[in-house]
């Protein structure tokens, strides 16, 4: 069990929201974030850091988490905004939007090492997704939501292979970018391989 947040429950801290993101590293697509709070008594041995779970298991837990949470929120920030304000600031904005969707009162926020300005005490815990149940649950909601988005993008642009690499800079993805060019509003122009593509195009004129 991921029980680190249990250290923080007290007479004044009864509801803790876990917040995490998915998609900071890819060359394409939005960054997603999720916020989740459970009743302090809730336990589930299967919930873990999304990176440690199979896609099938994440899908199963995606529904279970939403059905059992006291509250949850999911948000995304587009590639255009990422280019405008940078991925770090975009991730913070995304997390705050997800947090704003929690409709129940809460007393503390724990993030996966991301400092945020919140109305309640915040713990930016290193490896929070591997230590806290609520943060791990948030990591699953964010990851699955983003995967679903990228799979839909794959149906629109099948030549890029988004369903397989989810926008990360794999060899196949880089080859597709070289062949077809970046997709406006989908690829992150501020990320090095995409910026290099545009720089190369400018040098041809």
Please describe the structure with a list of short key phrases separated by commas or semicolons.
205 residues, alpha/beta, Nucleotidyltransferase, domain 5, 5-stranded mixed β-sheet, 15% strand, elongated
Q: What is the overall pLDDT average? A: 96
CATH homologous superfamily classification: Ribonuclease H-like superfamily/Ribonuclease H
Number of helices: 8
Class derived from helix and strand content? alpha/beta
Main sheet overview: 5 strands, mixed
How far apart lie the N and C ends? Answer: 59 Å
The ordered string of helix (H) and strand (E) elements is EEHEHHEEHHHHH
> How is the largest sheet built, in terms of strand order?
3-2-1-4-5
Low-pLDDT regions: none
The proportion of strand residues reads 5-15%
Shape descriptor reads elongated
Helix content: 40-55%
Enter the CATH topology name: Nucleotidyltransferase, domain 5
Walk me through the structure.
With 205 residues, this protein is α/β, with parallel strands linked by helices. It has a single domain (4-155), classed as Nucleotidyltransferase, domain 5. The chain has helices at residues 55-68, 79-85, 87-100, 128-131, 133-156, 162-165, 171-180, 192-203, and strands at 16-22, 31-37, 71-77, 108-112, 122-125. A five-stranded mixed beta sheet has the order 3-2-1-4-5. Strand 1 and strand 2 (31-37) form a beta hairpin. Helix 2 (79-85) crosses helix 3. The chain is elongated. It starts with 15 loop residues before the first strand and ends with a helix.
Brief account:
With 205 residues, this protein is an alpha/beta fold. The chain has helices spanning 55-68, 79-85, 87-100, 128-131, 133-156, 162-165, 171-180, 192-203, and strands spanning 16-22, 31-37, 71-77, 108-112, 122-125.
């Amino acid at each position: 069990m991921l029980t680190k947040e249990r250290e923080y429950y007290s007479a004044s801290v009864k509801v803790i929201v876990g917040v995490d993101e998915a998609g900071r590293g890819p060359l394409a697509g939005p960054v997603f974030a999720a916020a989740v709070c459970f009743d302090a008594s809730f336990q589930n041995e299967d919930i873990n850091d999304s990176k440690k779970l199979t896609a099938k298991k994440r899908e199963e837990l995606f529904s279970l988490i939403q059905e059992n949470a006291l509250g949850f929120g999911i948000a995304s920030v587009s590639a255009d905004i990422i280019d405008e304000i940078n991925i770090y600031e975009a991730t913070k904005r995304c997390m705050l939007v997800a947090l704003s969707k929690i409709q129940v009162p809460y007393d503390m926020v724990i993030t996966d090492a991301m400092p945020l300005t919140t109305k309640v005490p915040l713990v930016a815990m290193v490896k929070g997704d591997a230590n806290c149940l609520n943060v791990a649950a948030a990591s699953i909601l964010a990851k699955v939501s983003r995967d679903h988005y990228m799979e839909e993008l794959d149906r629109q642009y099948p030549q890029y292979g988004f369903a397989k690499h989810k926008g990360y800079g794999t060899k196949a993805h880089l080859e597709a970018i070289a062949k077809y060019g970046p997709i406006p509003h989908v690829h992150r122009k501020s990320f090095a391989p995409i910026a290099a593509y545009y720089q190369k195009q400018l040098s041809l004129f």
